[in-house]
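Exam revision sheet. Question 4 asks you to relate a sequence to its structure. Input first:
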Amino acid sequence: MYNSKYQKDYYQKHKQEKIDYAKKWRNKNKSLRKIKDKNYRNRQLTNQEMQNFYSIINSIKSPKCWIWNHSLVHGYGLFMGKSAHRVSYELYKGSIPKNMVVMHTCDNPSCVNPEHLEIGTQSENIADMIKKGRQSKGESKPTAKLTEKQVLEIRAKFKPRKYTYEMLSKEYGLAVRNICKIIARESWKHI
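Answer key, structure tokens:
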């Protein structure tokens, strides 16, 4: 397997360095593993953790939204591996039933004001998002490959039938089925 003794020594040393690095990383990131562990996230907070949460809340209380300005993930507050708005709801209003979500009536994901939080199902939360126009669409979607201007160009080019689906597909680097959906207004419906 090894061409020389030097090569064998090198690979064994390198292998040991990888093992040592992995051990250091595991020990260093134990707290990170706690956050990813569902049992850790679903546990009850200790009295000390509740006091820490209340001290943070007291520093940000206002008549309107209480903006969580500590750890944020995708705009939502994070406290001890749990969503900060869920912790706030549990501490001020009571436990959250199984398979239920805590919804923001103020539409501010970093708000932890219990007056702005209510319980609902995931489908109610999604319906509320759509009703209020908060879902990402068009260019605001992270997966969007086109701009609104390009979509309008595609529709305009296809209308006089000078371009085929295949020609537009090659020009814009999309699959033919996506061009069909744009022209039929099955996608990019809002423009």
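Marking note for examiners. The two ends are 62 Å apart (CA to CA).
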